[in-house]
Write a structure and sequence with these properties.
LexA family protein; 2 helices; DNA damage; eight-stranded antiparallel beta sheet; two-stranded antiparallel sheet; autocatalytic cleavage; 8% helix; globular; DNA repair; mainly beta; LexA-like; 170 residues
Length: 170
């Protein structure tokens, strides 16, 4: 088929397959258990990404990661991510995210959402409409995945707010 040269890019984009929505019926949430308290020393000064400071050997305080990462232990869970839909937010496949169910989602938060009994991790978007009401939608942070705009028959439940990404670098 012959196509005008000005339309080639548009037609190629239209023919490109769109990834399937990444909603899942089954997720494996792990409850938080603070079994041990491990205090990790940290220096008094902040660290630049260049040459180390000679004062860095002096430790001022200790940090307990349980207290630092978990604000509401009874409502906090860990979930392993199995999609690339949030790649541009720094969330990759096999990263673990900490989810706090006690937090109320705000515009721009990353959330674990349930739509018609299917779970997904997306950015929570809340926009004011001209009638002083709010329109809520879920934004994928990867252009290859679709954003989710709710249809009138769909039910959205924000299951929890993502508070931390646990990412192994090595």
């Amino acid at each position: 088929m012959r196509v005008p040269e000005s339309k080639v890019v548009e037609i190629k984009a239209w023919l490109k397959p769109i990834p399937k929505d990444d909603r899942s019926k089954n997720i494996e949430l792990q409850p938080i258990e603070a079994r041990t308290h491990l205090q990790i020393a940290y220096p008094l000064e902040s660290v630049a990404a260049g040459f180390p400071s000679p004062a860095q050997d002096y430790t001022e305080d200790f940090i307990d990661l349980n207290e630092h990462l978990i604000h509401n232990p009874l409502s906090t869970f860990i979930l392993r991510v199995n999609s690339l839909s949030m790649k541009n937010a720094g969330i990759d496949i096999d990263d673990q995210i900490i989810i706090d169910r006690s937090l109320t989602p705000e515009h721009g938060d990353i959330v674990l959402a349930m739509i018609n009994n299917e779970f997904t991790v997306k950015r929570f978007m809340k926009e004011k409409t001209h009638q002083h009401q709010y329109k809520v939608w879920l934004k994928a942070e990867n252009p290859e995945y679709p954003d989710i705009y709710l249809q009138s028959e769909e039910e959205l439940v924000i299951w929890g707010v993502v508070t931390c990404i646990l990412k192994k670098l090595r």
